[in-house]
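QUALITY CONTROL LOG
STEP: pairwise intake check
CHECKER ROLE: data steward
CRITERIA: each record must contain a sequence immediately followed by its structure tokens, with no blank fields

ENTRY 1 OF 2
RESULT FIELD BELOW
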Amino acid sequence: MAKVLMLYSTTDGHTIEICRRLASVISAAGDSTELVDLIDGPSLDHFEFDKIVIGASIRYGRHRKTVYEFIRTNRETLERYPNALFSVNVVARKPGKDTPGTNPYLRKFLARIEWVPQNLGVFAGKIDYPSLGPFDRTMIRFILWIGKGPTDTTGTYEFTDWDRVEEFGRLIARL
């Protein structure tokens, strides 16, 4: 039984939902998973693991600085273990922007880091307009209007393909 350390950065909580689904799939395959929020500034020295996964959401076209800093600080350790990285963004709801090779946010992210993850995933996220503050609600609505997405601010729109998430979980279990 392998131990999977899954680190995540979430903006509105959907990335942790994806991590929990991945952990469920990984657990069903016989491995254990520990979930850790990157906002807490974890040190890899404090964990026992055989595999490592990083999941990160984007907001306004960028992943959080904590993700970049963690990777920069821990690159050598990341490279020594079977690993994976996935990005969560609403642009991935569109065909042709829903794979690691075609998603513009993941491609931009990978160009900015020195680590080359062994396995990549990209998942469409979720927009929960009612839970957003006025500024974010307005900005995201405008961005989605430009991208021909849903703009009714009374709604919640989940675009995640959970079958793809589970497939990624099975891939992690096989590492």
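ENTRY 2 OF 2
RESULT FIELD BELOW
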Amino acid sequence: MDFRKPLIMGVLNMTPDSFSDGGRYNAYPESRIAQLVRQGADIIDIGGESTGPNSKNVDLEEEGRRVRPAVDYACATKLVEKIPFSIDTYKAAMAEYALMRGFEIVNDVTAMRGDPNMLSVLLRHKPYVILMYAKDPTPRTTTAKVEYDDVVKTVKDFLKERIRILLDSGFPREKIIVDPGMGMFVSAEAKYSFELIERLDEIRALGFPVCVCASYKSFLGGLIEDRGPASVEWSLKAIKNGASIVRVHDVGDMKKAL
């Protein structure tokens, strides 16, 4: 991927309970993929398990049942040869299924804490991997109002530790992407998400491309359906402050804004 220009990652949630679009695309994932391509997505991120507040554990069999139609469609139509596809999962077996079919990115919200086998899959395939900060050690995000003395330092220290595990194992440095987390992944206190975006240059100073997902997150305030403009605004601010990738639901609006 060419990180010299900002990249837009479009979201395809194959879930019934994602906070912003759960259940909307489950029956016809190919139409959502076509829409994202048409709107100008640089990357398409496909996931089958919500990890937001009040989400439930999904076993591998169910996650595969949800995700495989979208993965197989991207493979069968050779879209994976034209645009990078990302699998949003913390399960090693799900990641390997997608990687073997041409996916190029693993987006792991647990930063390899969710499955002890993830590291071996990453070392075997050497895809791009997105390591995300989350206050909770498990995929089930809480609504705790965590307080930080210095949220940026905490996030950086966490990411450094996860990066070190990869590098010490021989994983290629140029395939690592970091994500500071947003919203409830950081804290129910909205101020910390805003601060992370405002100080994103300090995260970028780690020396790795940064992915930010502010899209429709709770820290933006108001009703979910009214968060579109704020999603674009804070994604743009993230790019100005050093983000290489913005993960968004409204690819068309983001493309126009850029």
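INTAKE CHECK: passed for both entries
DESCRIPTIVE NOTE, ENTRY 2: Residues 151-168 form the longest helix (18 residues).
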